[in-house]
Amino acid sequence: MWLAALSLIVGLVLGFLSEIRIPPEYSNYLSIAVLAALDTIVGGVKAHVKGDFDDKVFITGFFFNIVLAAGLAFLGVYLGIDLYLAAIFAFGVRLFNNIAVIRRLVISKWDNARKNS
Amino acid sequence: MSGKPRKKIALFSVITLITGFILAYSYQYTKQESEKHPSVKEWQQEDQLRNDLLHVQRINHSLTDRLQHVRVQAQAEENKLVHEKKQSHYVVEELNRLRKVVGGVKVKGEGLEVSLKDTTFIPQSSDPNQYIVHEQHIRAVIYELLVSGAEAVAVNGQRITSHSYVTCIGPVVSIDGHQFPAPFIVSAIGNKNTLEKALRLSLLPQLEEDGIKVQLFGRDDITMDAHLHNEG
After folding, report:
1. B13 and B116 share a domain?
2. What is the pTM of this model?
3. What number is the ipTM of this complex?
4. CA distance B5 to chain A (A)
5. Which chain A positions have a beta carbon within 8 Å of B8's beta carbon?
6. I need a surface site. Which of A44, B34, B194, B232 has the fewest CB within 10 A?
7. Which residues of A touch B14 (CB under 8 A)?
């Protein structure tokens, strides 16, 4: 678990140090990427807590979600509709759902642990 | 148990690495963008101010142009004025000179006075016409004086011009409609010596032969009034 936290910090540092610049019109994709990444992490945590973690689902979910969201946003740009909002909405809802599930599971686990002790 | 959790953690680490990277990058990107593009309101204000400035600059520019134009115009006007003044100065000088010549103004200077008087000696038998001053005598004196370089001539104070006429009306002589009896004083402004010599040379003996008493007076200061066109 420490490794995950460490890699998060390394990623943050890398992000701050990176000198790559993207054009402003791609900022939508960036926001989707952020949400997709967060969703994947939270989803992974949920699966881990639940005990049904599957690395294939985890990895494919991350990339597939990002690609799908980016595709939606891309389509939206060409159709003149802000379709990336749909992706953001979906990710946001899932984020909250997953966090709620995690919270409940953690609380129930904690309760169980206390009863047992 | 030994293989799976490790793989799990490794995968998790990869994903967290990517997430961290994206998060930090996004944060940095947004910060830079917000620095690059201030809020819309601020931007609009800036645009407005820039437009105002441009407008004012444009007005200034056009005003400067106009100023330059007006300056050039003013200079041209001044030059014209100076030229006109010079011109009018010459014109006035010329006018004054011509006025003096034609008798339009009062003149003053050295000159000669010629007094023509009927003779006092009148033989009983003779025709009195032969012993009085006739207009032709006056004319002769005037012409002689003018020819000799007189600048202005007057008869009994009546200024003679190029339009003047001298006629005989019985015992008096009319000059430009003003009647004068004898004696006649023809005054001329000019070099008095020259005028006197000219008269003595030819005219004086003739006049004396016609029985006219002629006297010449050289004057240092003769004043002649302007010629006026009121006849009669």
Report:
1. no
2. 0.43
3. 0.72
4. 10
5. 48, 53, 55
6. B232
7. 7
DSSP string, B127-140: -GGGGS--HHHHHH
A40/B13 Cβ within 8 A? no
The verdict on A67 touching B (C-beta cutoff 8 Å) is: no
B220, B139: one domain = yes
Cβ of residue B18 closer than 8 Å to a chain A Cβ? yes
pLDDT given at position B232: 41
Same domain, B124 and B215: yes
pLDDT tens for A63-105 read 888 888 888 888 888 888 888 788 888 888 999 999 999 899 8
Q: Answer for the pair B149, B190: CB distance below 8 angstroms, yes or no.
A: yes
**Cross-strand bridge partners of residue B114:** B186, B216
| Triad B208, B214, B219: Cα angle to 5° | 150
Determine the Cα–Cα distance for residues B66 and B78; give it in Å rounded to an integer.
18
